[in-house]
Amino acid sequence: MAQFDLPLDQLVAYRPARDEQPDFDAFWERTLAEQDAAHPLEHGMERVETGLTEIVTHDVTFTGFGGQPIKAWFHRPASADGDLGVVVEYIGYQGGRGLAHEHTLLAQAGYATLVMDNRGQGSGHQVGHTGDAHVGGPHAAGFLTQGIEDPDAYYYRRLFVDAVRAVDVARALPGVDPTRVVVSGGSQGGAITLAAAALSAARGVALRGAIIDVPFLTHVRRCTEITDAFPYGEIVQHLFAHRDHVEQTFRTVSYFDGLNFAPRIDVPALFSVGLRDEVCPPSAVYAAYNHLGSTDKDIKVYAYNGHEGGGPFQLAEHLAFVHRVMA
């Protein structure tokens, strides 16, 4: 795919107006308060054998949105002493937490890691182990339009509450320093990271940093206008049929758009962008980056890559970033 979005000199200055509802903060304050009152956070953990001699892994289950149990892997270096910094990892679209031996790079580097499962997903690029008990209403195939007619019913309301609770669980696990937490994810995981960082801050949880690679669900309306790629194509399919629901659809999405979480994030941040990315167009990534509330931020640009972004090159950047902010 050739570069199709704005040229780089325009991307670095691209800071579009945000479509934010006046009750954005009140919506999320109410959402989290309702869940806390109705479904207090609990968690349990059970050690599992992975065959990795230098990593200790536990299968964690915690209370998510609606009281539903959410699965996660908790990795910790076997030889570590004392309380460690922890990275909470969120997974991309259609993926789950994977098998127990996956996602261990940061544990190899000396950090604890909590890898959250995606409710209802996990039949795509990685295995998942968590269902979603709240699916309903007409929607296109996939997750992006589930419940999209009402912010309270939208799929990502449930997933983002799970993500905030994953941060709370990570801080409470044994062998973790609750003052040293980083959130991380790519694509859909990047969208979840933006939400988790902003909403955790609103709850008074001070994070050490956020890693946001090629984020999805950001500057959504523009993305549906400039790319035919999926998952944004799910919204196009939905509106092809529901032609009278355009404004209501984008009103719902505005409560979940990374562009509106970005100004509420004031921690060190590492982004990445692929300038040939059709799935998460570069202008959407830069829009979130340029609206970020933090001045301690960096974006790694991969001019000849698409949605895979920097791949192993970006993982090396992750290591450097986590070493810096956890120090």
TrEMBL record:
InterPro entries reported for this sequence:
AB_hydrolase_fold (IPR029058), AXE1_dom (IPR008391), CE7 (IPR039069)
- Which residues constitute the catalytic centre? 187 (nucleophile), 277 (charge relay system), 307 (charge relay system)
From what superkingdom does this record's organism come? Bacteria
**Molecular function as annotated in GO:** carboxylic ester hydrolase activity
Q: Where is the Acetyl xylan esterase domain?
A: 1-323
Upper taxonomic lineage: Bacteria, Bacillati, Actinomycetota, Actinomycetes, Micrococcales
* Protein residues bound to substrate: 93
Gene Ontology biological process terms in this record: polysaccharide metabolic process
Record protein name field: Cephalosporin-C deacetylase
**Could you tell me which Pfam families the record lists for this protein?**
AXE1
